[in-house]
Amino acid sequence: MIKTLPLLLLLTICLSEDAPVARFAYGNMNLLPRQRAPFFSGIAVTPDLKFEKISLSDYQGKYVVLLFYPFDFTYVCPTELVAFSNAIDQFRALGAEVLGISTDSHFTHLAWLKTPRNQGGVGDLKIPLLADISKKISKAYGVLVEDELDELYGASLRGLFIIDKKGLVRTIQINDAPVGRSVDETLRLIQAFQYTDTHGEVCPANWKPGQRTIVPDQDKKAEYFAKSEL
User: What residue stretches are annotated with the Thioredoxin domain (predicted)?
Assistant: First the structure.
């Protein structure tokens, strides 16, 4: 009887009218780094304001940063897209492209792209915006909100995925809606993965290009830790 009390208490709390409602994004919650990125294809609005079909395979041989975001014409979303767009030359110098994705239609994307930035729009954006109207892409990447009680129902969470030139997922970052993502950190992660892939060494916390790395060997790692202040 004693062992069943915690379960009964949990059920009582969950069924109570005053209990908080759990809200989840479902979809492919099993997607992890080191796995092949789910294929996608859809209609995007390009920087020259044209509708164009875009697929993951179009970026073969390049790094890709997928930026899922909740809605057009909102608050945090335009600040993120403009920030990543402004840094596109830095991404391309690393052989990377950036793609924004939401469950809005391509017509909504187009209207937003035609809206000046000082009016909450994303005019003059240098990255394409993909329309995930079917929500299949968001679901495949595990960022689709499917809880009907959630105010973001049917939208994507603020997910960032770094896919390498082999089509493998290297980074998964999913923020709750109120907080935007960092361009500098995204660039740093791409630089770090490219360094480790090329040199076979590993990057410690807060590593930046030019700083010391670690040889992943039980004996050779001692050289790094002997000179580090942890």
Answer: 31-195
CB half-sphere exposure, 168, CA atoms < 13 A: 9
pLDDT tens-digit series, residues 48-100: 999 999 999 999 999 999 999 999 999 999 999 999 999 999 999 999 999 99
Q: Which of 39, 16, 25 is nearest to 167 (CA)?
A: 39
Name the phi and psi angles at 169, rounded to 5: -75, 125
What is the torsional sign of CA 185, 187, 190, 195?
A: negative
Q: Catalytic positions, please?
A: 77
> What's the pLDDT at 179?
98
* Domain topology for 22-181: Glutaredoxin (3.40.30)
Rounded CA separation 85/133 (Å): 23
Dihedral of the alpha carbons of 225, 226, 229, 230, in degrees to the nearest 10: 40
Q: Tens digit of pLDDT for each residue in 188-199?
A: 999 999 999 999
Task: Tell me the C-alpha distance between 104 and 117, whole Å.
Answer: 19
Residue-range domain boundaries for the chain = 22-181
